[in-house]
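Why this split exists: single-chain examples teach little about how molecules sit against one another. For that reason, every record in the complexes split bundles all components of an assembly together and asks for one structure covering all of them. Below is a record exactly as it appears in the raw files.
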Amino acid sequence: MALAIETRDLTKRYGELVAVDRLNLAVERGEILGLLGPNGAGKTTVISMLSTILKPTEGTAKVNGFDIISHPDDVRKSIGIVFQEPSVDDELTGLENLQLHSMWYGVPKAIRHDRISEVLTLVGLEDRKNSLVKTYSGGMRRRLELARGLVHHPKVLFLDEPTLGLDPQTRDQIWKYIADLAQKEDMTIVLTTHYMEEAEELCDRIAIIDQGKIVVLDTVEALKKSIGGDFVCLKIARPDIAVFASLSYVKRAEIDDDMLVLTVENANEHLQEILDRAGKAEYIAIRPASLNDVFLHFTGREIRPETGEGGIFQRIMRAEARR
Amino acid sequence: MSTWEAIYGIWLREVKVFSRERSRIITSLFTPLLWIFGFGGGLGPNVSVKEFNYQIFIYPGILAMSILFNSVFFGVYIVWDRKIDILKEILVAPISRTAIFVGKILGGTTDSMIQGTIMLLIGGLLGISFGFGTTILVLLFMLILTVGLVSVGLILGSVLTSPESFGSVVSFLVFPLFFFSGALYPLENLPPWLTFLTYIDPVTYGVDGMRGILLGTSRFPILLNFSALAAFALVMIWAGTFAFKRMQ
């Protein structure tokens, strides 16, 4: 049984709206798969169906070899979930939340204490474990939530936007822990995110989801390669696309305002040759392809509102988006 | 074994939350006390029913009322738990819905019985005398009534979607159950339509049973009251497990 998750035409409809559209997905054991997509793409719905919270309208899936429709209890026993909205109990302390969770998930009494300290230390809540959760900050709740999802060492862990609203240091720590855990415990992790860095840092493979469908699914490297390579941006007096036509490593060329934008395979090696053909350049920039470019390429839009950083590249992106 | 531990966990959560909200105990005692002293205290010196001072006469009814309010509300609180998203954690855990339901009943029963016991002590202050046997019997009636009514609350909680619907529950369920239970008047000599309503109100059998045990006067034999109440509780438990299985 090499597959941890296998979906067959998994579909969820809400009246007219198709939230998840005949999804076919295979996740291997021990893999970290990222579901990357804009808000409303259907990521959370996928996770809700796989964790048996929602019943699919059509199709089905197997999680840990158990069918989510005919054997939901077996599925539940073998998974952990960290919800997008905090679902820890405000009226209890952090420790009590974890103790109750351990009871519900059948963590043996003998190891319960150790498990709980382990996850509390991990998320840095050891010293606040006896405070009521209602006194916690948003980030602390999130960390407790994550600790709770891990305390029973599930075979498959679903993380719905695991680091949403966390500061960069905590985010780094949690990424490190998730990666470690996946390796040590042979845990399969499916996470949704709309943070490119998160997907890039953590995931073995990434599925880009848009409007309920998987647009593309592959490793980060392969995805980046698939869009042709790096970007070279030149400002020259008389841009002419034709001169690059014969270069096999130039995958695309286009003119945006007064800029010439080339998509080049292994740009670092070919820069001299490109410059020879381009002639005198007023401005040169070279930028490796990012996951954002991949996303843009496959969905035709950016994942989040532009941040205003890197002006020139924003323009390249916008130009890309217009195509 | 793990199922029992899961049920224990659900009960423990309720008890912990309850013990931290002491103000809830005070506020929920306030209404029954108002009835006993504000209403019964005023009518008592002037009105007597079946040779009892009115205040004493309605005491078993008010005891049932405090159980009615606390028990039904306990159940409806899960609507709130769902609203703030903490219900999801339990619903997605590998626990059977029946186990969740049982744990919730035990939690609600504990809450409601603690308050009921305080009410019972207040009865002692009013001069109602009860010995050991009587106390056990009253507690038994309180317990069965509580279990049935907590189940009613939980069924409502599993169906209702917004905390705003709490208000309708009070108007359309809890108040009618209270007023038609004979808590405030004897069941004899009523017009037929009212007699009918009192007979189909399960709380009636709790009030009548406890009045029989505490004051020695009742409309029905105690065994009949007990059986009616037990049947009500069993049906509600059955319906509740069903409702919880369907809850999303």
